[in-house]
Design brief:
alpha+beta, four-stranded mixed β-sheet, elongated, binds zinc ion
């Protein structure tokens, strides 16, 4: 997920997804031009804007506390957390692996909403306190808003549809009952999909009744939840199996590569018909300069096989078609899906240190996901 790196807390990198800036602006704007002016019409616009920015900033902190609570519990349960990315409606804590039992999953999942409820309660108490003194009325307004928004954060995340926290709780409970993580994930993301549909319908109903903006938000949230639930199931199964695995551990060494000056007829005879690989790295002075695949070979007319060299038909090397030995296997698989190349060279300092194929990853995935059942 692309974003801006901010700072580290508890050894965890905190990042902002680019969507966050839009959300931050929208929240500050809606507070400054809607909420505060309607509640405190006597104050000047500048004050409304300052309050708007403060509100958006404290919302940011609230979401951060929610995510940090998940991460803190995960760490205490022995699951490393690499990064927290804040975006759109909340955040994503990138755990390095899925919890290995339902009890851990339950603890990690429930921590976030509980911290939001506690924050809501704290802001509400502070609100009651500041309400006593008339000159703090503006602060009281902000505190009331923050209490409300934290309560909404807790309630929204408790919706029992995976991958929301409530859905994770549901999954943990089913997991404990059935003993199968895969089955539990299927049920919890099924719930997520249907709740998503329900929220979309509620939104459409709202729009029909004239509540345009509120209805529109419901539709967006519903679509978000639906697609997240669909993607979540596959991703969880995949990530659970591959997370933490490096390209280096899966790649095959002893790579067979070809020289850039090799003639095509020799390439066919000595490589394609001898080793039966589909892709070969192309070398010049021991450094990789490209890859040649069956697809490029097929484009060369047979009567030119004696004239053309590998260099003339190869795909020149670029970031998108090579892998880093220290990279994650999950990312490597995504790169292969993106580029449509099922076999990519693993390159370090310009030298080919291995090859990784989609089959290698998928075979491992199949074995691992079957064992998780
Ligand atoms: Zn959460």
């Amino acid at each position: 997920m692309k974003g801006v790196k901010l700072f580290r807390v508890l050894g965890i990198q905190i990042s902002l997804n680019y969507t966050w800036f839009i959300v931050f602006g929208l929240i500050a704007w809606s507070l400054a031009s809607g909420y505060f002016p309607s509640h405190y019409p006597d104050l000047n616009p500048l004050t409304h804007w300052i309050m708007g920015f403060l509100g958006a900033f404290f919302l940011f902190l609230s979401v951060l506390v929610h995510e940090l609570t998940h991460s803190y519990i995960a760490k205490r349960e022995g699951i490393e957390v690499k990064e927290i990315t804040l975006f759109f409606f909340g955040g994503v804590s990138q755990l390095t692996k899925e919890p290995e039992d339902s009890k851990k999953e339950l603890k990690v999942a429930i921590g976030g909403p509980i911290s939001s409820l506690v924050l809501a309660l704290i802001f509400w108490i502070l609100f009651r306190v500041t309400l006593q003194s008339p000159h703090l009325i503006l602060i009281a307004g902000l505190l009331w808003y923050l209490a409300l928004i934290n309560l909404s954060l807790a309630l929204f995340n408790l919706i029992p549809g995976f991958p929301l926290d409530g859905g994770r709780v549901l999954r943990a409970l089913y997991w404990r009952k059935t003993g199968s993580l895969k089955k539990a994930t299927r049920i919890a993301s099924g719930a997520g999909k249907w709740i998503g549909v329900g929220i979309i319908l509620l939104g459409l109903f709202g729009i029909l009744k004239g509540n345009l903006i509120g209805g529109f938000w419901f539709v967006i949230i519903g679509i978000f939840l639906r697609s997240a639930a669909e993607g979540g199931l596959q991703q969880v199964v995949m990530k659970g199996a591959l997370e933490g695995l490096k390209v280096e551990e899966l790649m095959s060494q002893g790579v067979i590569s070809v020289s850039h000056s090799l003639r095509i007829d020799r390439l066919v005879e000595d490589f394609y018909l001898t080793h039966t690989h589909i892709t070969y790295p192309v070398l010049e002075d021991d450094k990789i300069i490209g890859i040649v695949t069956l697809k490029q070979l097929k484009e060369v007319p047979r009567d030119q096989w004696m004239e053309k060299t590998v260099r003339e038909v190869m795909m020149p090397i670029r970031e998108e078609i090579m892998l880093d030995p220290d990279g994650e296997a999950v990312d490597a698989l995504q790169k292969m899906i993106r580029t449509g190349e099922g076999r990519l060279p693993v390159v370090k300092g310009g030298r080919v240190v291995g090859m990784l194929t989609r089959r290698d990853i998928l075979n491992l995935l199949e074995i691992k996901t079957d064992l998780v059942e």
